[in-house]
Amino acid sequence: MERHCNEGGVLDLRVEAFSSVGVDRGVLAGDTRAPRITEHPVSAAGLRTDPMTLRCQADGRPAPNVTWTKDGKALEVELQGGFSHRVVLPGGNLFFLRLDPADAGAYRCVADNGVGDPAVSREATLEVAYLKHEFRAAPTSQMVTAGDTVLLQCGPPRGRPDPAVQWRKDGRRLDVDEHGQHGDRQPRLRLVDGTNLAIRDARPADSGRYQCVAQNVAATRESPEASLQVAVPPHFVTRPSDTTALLGSSAVLRCEVAGDPKPSVNA
After folding, report:
1. Does the first or last residue of the chain, that is N or C, have fewer Cβ atoms within 10 Å of its Cβ?
2. Which residues constitute the domain of residue 70?
């Protein structure tokens, strides 16, 4: 503040804006500006327990305070064991120390400095990838007859994104016609409802150990193995035929049978 006397002897006081610790020169001078978002958050996906940052930058006079919303509601800091697994950093970014499936949702950042209306960012979707351990349905061991149709069930664990399912036989991946891509109108091996394995016209070569495998970007899960045995009904390979023999001599009547399991022959 300066003091001056004019020609008439009247004291003239002049007050100038100044800057000091904790005082914004522009604010004192009336230079305020409503907040605006300078960097909008973008949609992202991460693995469960991994760290993640959703970015948001804003400016205005005075500097705005940045908060976040999730699914249209104000985001509250959640304490877990005495500390928070997510925090709004001083610059406005939202940091997750470790992602949890409950963190998935639609996020916006909100900047407010008391001047004009708060600035709201575009929506960003956060997806947390995970895959549970428990299969909802697992294949079971079966014994069928050759020519039958077999259905091996598989209900993969719940996950995000939804896991893809493939089948193994004796430890090797099965070539399954999922959508008739091999050109067969009725493929012998196909997926039913996207996960269950159907085998049409079962053959002895189909016997073996089957396993359902579920996989997404988060993990791979394997079901317990199930045994499939395709039985072949007994049938004659060589039938006995009429034979003439001399009295007291030996005679051989040939009979040969086949099947799986190997059948027994009773005279």
Report:
1. C
2. 35-129
Residues 154 and 212: beta-carbon distance below 8 Å: yes
The domain spanning residue 82 has which CATH number? 2.60.40.10
| Torsion angles phi and psi, residue 62, rounded to 5 | -70, 170
Which structure tokens are listed for 235? 């049938």
Which residue is associated with the tokens 């799986």? 260
pLDDT digits (tens, 9 = 90+) for 234-247: 767 777 777 777 77
Tokens describing residue 35: 């907040």
pTM recorded for the entire structure: 0.63
Q: How far apart are CA 24 and CA 20, in angstroms?
A: 8
Residues paired with 191 in a beta bridge: 197
In a domain, 3, yes or no: no
Domain boundary among 129, 162, 180: 129
Rounded CA-CA distance 185/176 in Å is 14
Structural domain tally of the chain?
2
